[in-house]
Amino acid sequence: MQNALITDNVMNYLDYMEATDSGIMDKTLMATDNYMCKTYSAGDVKKALCEDSLTFYDYAALLSPAAENMLEEIAKQAKIETRKHFGNSVSLYTPLYIANYCDNHCTYCGFNCKNDITRGKLSFEEIEAELKAISNTGLEEILLLTGESREESNVEYIGEAVKLAAKYFPTVGIEVYPLNTDEYAYIHQCGADFVSIYQETYDADIYAKYHLSGPKRSYPYRFNSQERAIRGGMRGVSFGSLLGIGDFRRDAFATGIHAYLLQQKYPHAEISFSAPRIRSFINSRDTQESQNSVSEKQLLQVLLAYRIFMPFVSIVISTRERAGFRDNVIGLAATKMSAGVKVGVGGHFMEKKGDEQFEISDARNVDQVHTMILDRGLQPVYSDYIRMI
Amino acid sequence: MNDPLIIGGREFISRFILGSGKFSLEMTKVVIENGGVEMATLALRRAHTGGKENILDYIPEGITLLPNTSGARNAQEAVRIARLARDLGCGDFVKIEVINDSKYLLPDNYETIKATEILAKEGFIVMPYMYPDLIAARQMADAGAATIMPLGAPIGSNKGLLTKEFVKILVDEINLPIIVDAGIGRPSQACEAMELGVAAIMANTAIATANDVGTMASAFKLAVEAGRKAWLAGLGRVLEHKAEASSPLTGFLEGH
User: Fold this and answer.
1) Could you tell me which CATH number the domain at A3-381 has?
2) More confident position, A372 or B59
3) pLDDT value at residue A3
4) Which range of residues forms the domain containing residue B162?
């Protein structure tokens, strides 16, 4: 299946993939072309900071090179917005990788199907043991992840894992391969309410270059995942680009517009942003350059722009970033962070059963992160949700 | 002056209801004390599991809990959350919040009316959060609401009493306590709302985002009291209707 896609146009779908034609993708790409080709001045940035409600033009200005030199001013505004909408709350969660088999060849990812790593998949007993161990740390939100293999981690397997997670956690999210609407509905019925899925890059040519084979090569199917998830009954969806693959400004802009348009069409949808930068992984060779291509300053610029453009959304800061960075962006732009993170398969209760997706930069446990949040005058929030299924 | 606020048969001296959820839990006690608060909201979604950092552990005894249904997107979900709150021992008071818009967090009046009707029949003391629409407020009152809680401005916006004229209509027409629930950004705005004749003020963000949370709670207490006294004193005549005419306007009438 995956080999058939090597030379395929990335705009194609495979047979099983549900095609969505809502116009959000076309509008996102058109807006990105329109706004990212312009040059923005410091004056444009200042104007954006004065607006109650930002236009796409204002948002592009906040992501521009001109804005990179005005971060202090932008940060002040972002902090005001964060405080207004979230007070000093910081939500906590952790990811649990239940499998790392993958059908895709994405050259930046440790799970890619060509990478020679230890593969594994947790049994249901193992999943439950991991869930119990995580629950004992006090966390009440979990994100279940798999590699992207429909065969090894099929929808039923994910559904059963979600049912187990729902026994221990009020809030369950999934980060798995893109599903069709009916499959999202099934997973929702099993107890999951949130879906994280990232486009990686919105530039279709670069997308083709980094996604050499596998179902992930279908750009539109991935793009419309959030919309299918919401149609399937999920309450919230996450958006993100893997910063450093393409032009990060352009990708961050498109990410924001994508989320904006989806929220406009589905006003009840709870929106969340993640802003991962490329990390090195086992056997990684060519990512050193990419890793350095987006600086910490630029990452902060993206986070601040997300916050000011859509002040009501949740922004997640992952352990891809160092502790000192994470600690300072909560309350400023980010409103949610992971703690006690393992990115191998399992590893919370038992020995890891499969290798990691990437190397993390912040291995602090829940208690350490909890204390840090309180020390910063912020409030750790464990539960913010009541499951309605 | 004996001027209690009566909701669901319970008397309150304080007319400042504390919203929770945006400040550090350890500040809850000081805010309640400084603000003279007797009723505080409780987002059940933050409190239902009894786990770490549970707000229920921080609210002092004797405070009337007002669990809210935040997170509910329709009447059915609001009803479920209200029942859950009651099962957890949070009492019969419930603030209905039905929000179907993640951007502006504006309440859905239609679904709120439906939830009000169901919960009032079940014996809840229902306090619906709503967009200040007279027709919807009448329907909520008919459905058994104990108060009406119109928003002053979008939640968290701190923009003050943007809906002033419409809140005033509710004060004039609805025979229930009107409690302004969102958007109050500073004590002067709380005072202004009280001067209109609203029965109480609810605030959270304005206090949570102050540099000195405790002192701001105290400032709100004073502002709410001042506004209430001004209303009781009959402030409206001069300020609402401008200056008195200098000579009689009806002097031309025969036999005057």
Assistant:
1) 3.20.20.70
2) A372
3) 46
4) 5-241
Mean pLDDT of chain B: 90
The answer to whether residue B158 sits within a structural domain is yes
In a domain, B16, yes or no: yes
Residues of B in contact with A84 (CB under 8 A): 156-158, 205, 209
pLDDT-above-70 percentage for chain A: 95
Can you give the pTM of this predicted structure?
0.92
| Chain B residues interacting with chain A (CB cutoff of 8 angstroms) | 21-25, 43-49, 51-53, 71, 73, 77, 80-81, 84, 100-103, 105, 156-158, 204-205, 208-209
Contact A267 B102 (CB under 8 A): yes
Say whether residue A170 is in contact with chain B using an 8 A CB cutoff.
yes
Distance CA B108, CA A377 (A): 34
Asked if the Cβ–Cβ distance from A140 to B158 is below 8 Å, we say no
Question: Number of C-alpha atoms within 13 angstroms, CB side, residue B58?
Answer: 23
Question: What is the DSSP secondary structure assignment for residue A351, as one 8-state letter?
Answer: P
Average pLDDT, stretch A319-331?
94
Collapsed DSSP state (helix, strand, coil) of residue B148: strand
Task: Give the percent of chain B with pLDDT over 90.
Answer: 68
Any idea what the CATH number is for the domain that residue B31 is in? 3.20.20.70
- State yes or no: is B95 an active-site residue: yes
Domain ranges of chain A: 3-381
A210 Cβ contact partners less than 8 Å away, ≥ 6 residues apart = A106, A107, A108, A200, A201, A245
Domain count for chain B: 1
The number of residues in chain A equals 389
ipTM: 0.86
Q: Which of B11-25, B199-213, B239-253 has the weakest average pLDDT?
A: B239-253
User: Would residue B9 count as lying in a domain?
Assistant: yes
Contact A91, A330 (CB under 8 A): no
**Whole-number pLDDT of residue B119:** 98
Residue B254, in any domain of the structure: no
